[in-house]
């Protein structure tokens, strides 16, 4: 079936569905106190997350009844992506932002075949920005602006000239939290004190939008453990189509699975990607313990 799929038609449907999902998101009026906690008080889900995912699944199934669905709000914990074609969906990525009205929220949709994304759509309804890609056909902002923004991106040279994205995520205890905050500190600390002295650290609160911003070339790297395939599948393709790469958060692993839950995204550049990854890994303060 995957050989006969018209990826442009899939792309066009995902764009339409993402924009309709965006209307549902804008029409909602979430309250901080109305959100439900999942693993803890920072890991939120709202009725909108669930309603949007239900809309997306129903709509996609109508046109593509034989393609599977893997969504944040309906997936069975512990299930992994199979080789079969599947739609991977985060209905509302940045749910904490959503309940606070902080406009870094998006719907992330991807078609994944043999565990590789082949169509990716990320739509932020608050900023009316659409990031999209079809495998082998480039990445675009709003369907017209080719990514990255700079047709001749600067080389990556040193973390001292890098703008990086990291996220606190939901885990705030134990080894994972310790590794995270020690890594953040080392990235920010002055070189003379053993740090990387990055230009700064940004946190949008959305893994998908972090990937999109790395693809645009306005972030140099994004480092996060604990995200899931639905957070990153669309962004992974959008980044890859710009020459960007995705490696492990943990030092030494260059080959990560789409549902591996540990990701470092690196922007496309004529040179310096591997050197910058090695430099970044020297500041990772241990091993993040996230697995598919
Ligand atoms: C969010 C991710 C973000 C992470 C948050 C949360 P959600 O996804 O996009 O990178 O730091 O903890 O997991 O839950 O808003 O779809």
TrEMBL record:
Binding-site residues, Mg(2+) 1: 72, 231
PANTHER family named among the record's database cross-references: INOSITOL MONOPHOSPHATASE, INOSITOL-1-MONOPHOSPHATASE-RELATED
Protein species of origin: Lachnellula arida
Record's keyword terms, sorted: Hydrolase, Magnesium, Metal-binding
Record-listed Mg(2+) 2 binding positions: 90, 93
Gene: INM2_1
GO biological process, any: inositol metabolic process
Signal peptide per UniProt: none
Record protein name field: Inositol-1-monophosphatase
């Amino acid at each position: 079936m995957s050989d006969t799929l018209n990826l442009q038609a899939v792309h066009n449907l995902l764009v339409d569905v993402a924009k309709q999902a965006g209307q549902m998101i804008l029409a909602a009026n979430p309250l901080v106190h109305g959100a439900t906690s999942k693993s803890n008080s920072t890991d939120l889900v709202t009725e909108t997350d669930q309603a949007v995912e239900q809309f997306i699944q129903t709509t996609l199934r109508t046109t593509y009844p034989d393609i599977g669905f893997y969504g944040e709000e309906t997936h069975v914990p512990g299930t992994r992506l199979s080789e079969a074609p599947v739609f991977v969906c985060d209905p509302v990525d940045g749910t904490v932002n959503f309940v606070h009205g902080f406009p870094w929220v998006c719907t992330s949709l991807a078609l994944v075949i043999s565990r590789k994304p082949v169509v990716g759509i990320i739509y932020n309804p608050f900023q009316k920005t659409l990031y999209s890609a079809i495998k082998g056909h480039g990445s675009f902002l709003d369907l017209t602006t080719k990514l990255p923004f700079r047709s001749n991106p600067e080389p990556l040279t040193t973390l001292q000239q890098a703008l990086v994205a990291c996220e606190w995520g939901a885990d705030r205890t134990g080894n994972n939290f310790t590794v995270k905050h020690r890594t953040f500190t080392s990235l920010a600390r002055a070189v003379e004190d053993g740090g990387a002295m990055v230009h700064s650290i940004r946190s949008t609160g959305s893994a998908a939008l972090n990937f999109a911003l790395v693809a645009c070339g306005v972030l140099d790297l994004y480092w996060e453990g604990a995200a899931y395939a639905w957070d990153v599948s669309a962004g992974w393709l959008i980044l890859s189509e710009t020459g960007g790469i995705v490696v492990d958060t943990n030092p030494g692993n260059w080959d990560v699975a789409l549902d591996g839950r540990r990701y470092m995204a690196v922007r496309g550049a004529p040179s310096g990607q591997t050197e910058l990854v090695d430099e970044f890994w020297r500041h990772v303060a241990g091993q993040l313990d996230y697995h598919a």
